[in-house]
Amino acid sequence: xxxxxxxxIIALRLSEGDDIGDCIAHVCRACDVDxxxxxSAAGMVSSVIFGWYNGRDYNIETVKEIMELTxxxxxxxxxxxxxxx
Length: 85
Description:
Strand order of the largest sheet: 3-8-9
Order of helices and strands: EEHEEEEEEE
Helix content: 10-25%
Shape: globular
Largest sheet: 3 strands, antiparallel
Number of helices: 1
């Protein structure tokens, strides 16, 4: 993983095998960021955990195959005392 940061924007470039969530959390800690908005991403992924709320429960499904990532959005906050991207 490589990253570049300004006062307002951090850009990440992941390498094969890097975990997106772990890399975002690592860079946030390195840049002393305690909350952030994940604006966009594109590339390729080999394993994805999809999660969605059905109105009562939160469901997850893991898909382990190579797929194109065309969009990604979210946030970074604290959960249980740790960064949670």
